[in-house]
Every structure is written in structure tokens, then in C-alpha cells.
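Forum: Protein Structure Q&A
Topic: Joint prediction for protein chains with partners

I've read a bunch of threads here and the consensus seems to be that you should model interacting components together rather than docking separate models afterwards. I'd like to see that in practice. Below is the full input, 590 residues plus whatever partners are listed. Could one of the regulars post the assembled result?
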Amino acid sequence: MTTTDTTDTTTGTDTAGATRGELCWLPLDVLTPHPENPRASLGDLSELVRSIRSHGILEPLVVLPADDNGEHLLVAGHRRHAAAQRAGTVTTVPVVVRAMTPVEVIEAMLSENVNRSDLTVAEEVRAVERLMSLEDGLTPAKLCRRIGRSQAWVRSRMAVTILPVRWRAAIDSGELSLAAAEAAATAADLGPDHLDAVCERLAGARWGDPARAVASYRDDLRRDTAYTAAVERAQAKWATVCTADDPPPERAKRLGELFDPDGCKAHRSEPCHAAVVRRTSWGDGFEVHEVCTDPRRHHRTRVENGNGSELASDHTRPAANHDDSHAKRKGRLARLDHAATAFAKTRGGISQHDLTRLALRGLISEAGREAVGYAATILGYDQPRDVTTADLLDGADTPAALVGVAGAVAAGLAETAMYWSSGSEPCRDYLATLTSTGWTPDDWTATVLARHTDATVEDAYDEQADADDDGGDESDEGDDESEEDDIDS
Amino acid sequence: MDRPTACLVSVPPGAQAALFHLPVDGAPVYTVLDRDGRVQTRTTSLGVAMTAVRHLVAEHGEAWVRTTDDTTAHIGPAGVASDTPAHPWIRTLTATLETSP
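Posted by a regular:
Agreed with the consensus. Here's the joint model:
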């Protein structure tokens, strides 16, 4: 349809036809911009003015029916209306007069502008706010369907309404991106001051993920709060507290470097005791260390002269409790000495029965988890993988039972050895025992055994060859030299 | 006898006053209630909640916003009232409503 074709339209203010949404021509001076128009600025109209001067208005404007004063409020076509006024060559314009509810009017105005991406973010935000305030029960989900935008689009516009006016304006000026504003709005629960600070931080940061920046701000805040609480607790507990704001105490040393735990406790009553609370950028945001600000007070010579503390660091360390390596070694030597004497005795020494028990229990205890599992399988445990050496030894009270368990563990060890050294002595004993009781080796085992046998024969040849080589070293060296000479020549 | 107005005014219709406001983990969820105690909006965005509040205040004259830790604000033509006015999100709400057009 060509709207400039006047034969197809009615002229004058035919209100009856207009309310049916029909096309008509209206004088320019009866059209008034709608006060609820979301577009605050009409932008540069010069191109449009030139176009209207040349071709007139090609698309009809959409207006509401005339009010009591005979004026029609514009719904769509504010820019064309303004350009037509500025052109001065147009007196009547094509319009569609349509009766609409206030909500429909704003929806239409919003849809028209939003879908062309002509509105600024602040204008979109205002329009969404206005729409939401007009209709009862209009949720973001419903609104997005009506204006043809995604729910995320609507939610982001609604979310930034919590920002201070200054920062909402900053979105339009480009100082704050919409994504950053949306992320900043999630910090609304921190209070207006922090909300402002988050906006400030995001406006300054051109790069990076705004959501991560807000999360980082929250972490910093949490650590700051924790640090302040830690300082308060330390000040309530200790007479001297060095915080992050104080200069670091000179010559201070952590108590752990000077004293044992008892000494650290005793040091708390000393005048040189202090607590240092440091900020950290990780974890809880603080560290508390108890320190001695004058470690020389506890030096041995000062203690002996009566000028220092009784807590001399080298006097208070009880060797029996903490540094017991000497006592341990002494005890071990005593035990070994007695064992050597007992072994040497033919009578009154360690009995064969006790030696057997020690040997078998030692074998069982030292077996690896895999061998214990195999032994448990041999012994018929229901859940062999869960069995431990303690479980195996639990029921082995008699020598016969102990021998049975130890034999199963030895078989388990041999089974384990199959996979790394099929030719080991325990392994061959184990296989021989199985064979003697009527077992026929399976293919894999037979192959492994054959390979081992071949390898043993080859090894024997190699050893013989090595022995021969050792005997003729000199002649070999001479041969090598002669070969090199041949190559050079 | 003085009426405990500060405590009563921020309790939405049909809800009980909370004696303690225990901190909760995670982002707070804001519930907007109308004067009949009906939930209008439940959202993690205070901006979305405030949009609903503006509508309710324009339509019914008042609205309540309650968060996960049971802190509540009453919003009416006179502004924001709460028994925990120093709570950060309530201060944000107050500041935004005071400065926004």
C-alpha cells in the first residue's frame, strides 16, 4: 500500500473510522507527542527532514483517538512527526488512528523502538519500569513475551533499577556497561555504599568478567570484616597487638621458633609477648601469630645472670618428650644387645617355638595388601579385599593356625611375585607345591615358566661369554685400535 | 503504653515477626508481598523486587519485601519502614527509593 496515494485515504478528522484502526490523513498540528514515550531524545533528524521534503511521509504514524481538545497522542512515529514539523512542507500526514489501553500504548512504543535498538539502556529501563507499574500481575516472563524480548533482556533492565541515579546515567554515557551494571546490581544486598563502590570498581575496569569482579569484591569485604573481628578479639585477649597498620615489630620471633608448647603458654605472661594480626588475600583474610618481641631476654646467659626471663629457650626444651631420638637409639641398642645374648644361649635363650612365632607373625605383618588379599582368598574369607593382616592374625592363636596363615600369606606373596619375577625361588616353590598336589599349569603360566627357563639358559651363555671376554681384553683393545686406523686410512 | 510499631509495621500480613535474623549462605532471595500477604514476586535481584514494589505501592498503597533471613521492609507512600533499618539491603532500598524519580 502506498500511503502517499491520497485517493486511498480519507481526509479530515474522521474519528469514527479512526477508532476502527483505519488509515486517514490528519493535519500535523492536531498530533501531539505522547508524554510516556520511552525515547527521551529523538536524535539527529536532518536526514529524515530531507527525505520528507523530497518524498513526504511514506509510512503512516499511529495515533490514539482524539481527546477532548481534538488532539491525537502519537503512539508511533515521533521522529517522523518532529521531522515533518521541521520540514515545513507537510501539512497533513497519513495516520492510523487506533484505540489502545495505556499498557498497549507503552508496549507498542517500546516494541517499535526496542526492536530497532534505537533506545538507550536508560530509556529501556524506564519503559520496562513503566510497563511493570501499569498492569497488575505483569511478571518479567509475561512482559518479555509481550514485547518480543528475552526474559534475560527484561530482567537485566529491571535489575539495574536498584542502582543509584548517577550510575544509571553512567550506563547511557558508556561509563558503565549494561553487563557491568547488571553484575553490580547483584551487590545491592551489601548496602548503598558498597553498591556505589562496586559500580566505581566496575566502571574503572574495562576488561574482565564483571560477575567475577563482584565476587572478588565480596571476598575482599568478607576478609576485611574477618580481619577487623580478629583484631578486636586479639586486642581483647592480649596486651600488645600489632595490626597491619602498625610497623612490623623489629627482632620479633614467633614463639614456635623459640619454645616448646609449654614454653609458648608460659610466655604469655611475659612483657615481651605480643600478637601480630596480619591481613591475607586468601583464606579467612587474616593470620594471627603470637610472637616474642625481645627474644634476647630468654637467652641462656641473661638467664644465668638474672637479667632475663626464666623461659630460656635452650633451657626449657624437655628432651624426653620431644627430642627423644637419643633415648630411642639407646633403647634399641639395649634390645639388640639382649637379643644377641639370648640367641647365643643354647639353654634359657629364645625357644624355637617363640622364634617360629616371631618369624611367621613378622612375615604376615610385612606382607603387602595384595598378598594379604590373595592369602584371604586362599583361606576362604568372604570379602578377601577387605581383610587386613590384623584380621588374619586374629584367629591364629595356636602354632598350627599361625603356620596355616603364614603359608597362605607366603603363597600370596609368591602369587604377587608371578607378575614381576616369575623365576623367583618362592614363586617356583609355590608352583611346585601346586603341581605336586595335582595342578596342571595353565597356558599363561606355562609360557611364563618356559620363557624363564629359556632366559635362564641364555643368561648362562651370556655369563660364559662375559667370562671369555674378560680373559681377552687386551687383544680386543688392540683390534679396536686397528679398526679405527683402517677407518681413518 | 507505647505500641511496638517498629516491630509490627515490617511484618507482612499473615506472617509472624522474626525474633532473630540468622545469616544465610548464598544470595538472598527477595519476596515481595502485597497487603493481602500474597507473594507477588520472588527473585534474587533487588532491582526486580523493587520494580514489583513500585507497582504495588502505586496500585495498593503499600508492599512488603522479605528476604531469606526474615528481615523485612515495609514500603508505603511515606517511605521504607523496618525493624532492622540498618540492614544493608534495606538501606539500599531506602536510598534508591529516595533518589529515584
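Chain A has four domains: 7-160, 162-223, 238-305, 352-436.
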